[in-house]
Amino acid sequence: MEYEMEFRLKKRDENTGARAGELQTPHGLVQTPVFMPVGTQGTVKGMSPEELKEIGAEIILGNTYHLYLRPGHEIIREAGGLHRFMHWDRSILTDSGGFQVFSLADLREISEEGVTFKSHIDGSFHFLSPEKSIEIQNALGADIIMAFDECAPYPCDYEYAKRSVELTARWARRCRARHQRRDQALFGIVQGGVYPDLRQKSAVDLVDLDFPGYAIGGLSVGEPKHLMFEILEATIKHLPESKPRYLMGVGSPEDLIYGAALGVDMFDCVLPTRIARHGSVFTHRGRLIIRDSQYMRDFGPLDPDCDCYVCRNYSRAYIRHLIKAKEILGLRLTTYHNLYFLAELMRGIRRSIMEGSFRDFKQEFLASCGTDNNEDNEGDNEGGACE
Fold first, then answer.
1. Which residues make beta-bridge pairs with 246?
2. Which end of the chain is more exposed for a tag (fewer CB within 10 A), N or C?
3. Over the chain, what is the mean pLDDT?
4. What pLDDT, on the 0 to 100 scale, is given for residue 295?
5. Is the pTM of this model over 0.90?
6. Which residue of the set 95, 205, 255, 265 is catalytic?
């Protein structure tokens, strides 16, 4: 099938695997590498569509599992699709629902046909198959949709991961056969746990199906950071250069830098909005917990090196007051700042790749933030869109 989506590589960094490109969808141009804010239930928590545009968001992510359960894909279809339903006229990606079925459902039973699961909302039983996932995503009308996969847990043994890879490949073929909309690009999802040979097998199986893009799933689910990047590097070399690569569920600033250096084009994560609601913000000097008492009389901005609306107009003391008083504005301001911070980081990554200075940009950013890639992955990223 010829899709309306087109991916163009503009430049590769000479010293790393980083690359800058453009992703053209029916709803606009997306500059890559890109971080996609997560709008699980048809909204990015704490942000209006107009505010997302202010920070430069070109694509956001919606969640098939949640939108299927509430309000239902048929209602969204009747509304004219997810773009119209949520008042967003730029690009949207929806995930398949697989990660949520395996991580959220109170009870689930996996078979060759699909997964029977119990809703975490009301306890009702549902069945999600590859065909059903595609049907739901077709109704939602996102620009990019994902094949239904099994996300193996961490840790899991080799034989379980192997069966999961084989099942994911069979389900991917069924998704490919069912999907018929040219205006929705269907991506395959590479699985394989922390086993490089299984990652290679999964990638080869999916590349044979000639998807227009490929996601890397099943990482950032509890494994140590160093292992996550080892597996990412072992996986990405088996994916075609000419197609976009999407690392699911990764979104801390340092992880975006490391992922881009390995050649990832697309990222998503609930991290920036989730920590914002608990009073934590990204800064160029590392993460800042604004709830702490030391900021009670700090009348400077969240980040002196940030020029976002929040940092130009509000003090740490005021935002701390709002967070402590449980005022909605507080979490809205921290959310705005965090998403702007990542959007600006991605702009810097893209600019440095185009200028041939990405390695210097990477070193300077990581040095200023004081980050360490060897720390354990403590579940910050929670691979996948679910908030």
1. 215, 266
2. N
3. 94
4. 98
5. yes
6. 95
